[in-house]
Each structure stands twice: as C-alpha cells, then as structure tokens.
Design a protein that fits this description.
The chain is mainly α and 47 residues long. Helices cover 87% and strands 0% of the residues. It has one domain.
Length: 47
C-alpha cells in the first residue's frame, strides 16, 4: 500500500493518472466500437 500512499502524497501524479486512464478508455472506445460493428455485420461468417 506504499504505492497508493505515494500517489496520494504527490498531487502532481493525479492529472497524469487521470489522463492515462482517460486516454486508455478513449483508445478502447475508438478500437472497440468499429470492431463490434464489424463483428455484428459479419456474424454469419463467424458463426
């Protein structure tokens, strides 16, 4: 739990942690949504 204390103790890390989390979710959405649509369109081929 030293890691957690370190993050809480250093406020400068918060924007970094939040931006990394936000960036990851944006990437997941941009890659995941078209992939999901592609799979739904070609469902007959996959099944």
């Amino acid at each position: 739990s030293l890691y957690l204390w370190y993050i809480l103790d250093v406020p400068a890390y918060w924007p970094l942690v939040l931006s990394i989390g936000l960036g990851q979710s944006v990437v997941v959405l941009t890659l995941g949504v078209p992939l999901l649509r592609f799979v739904q369109r070609n469902q007959e081929k996959f099944l």
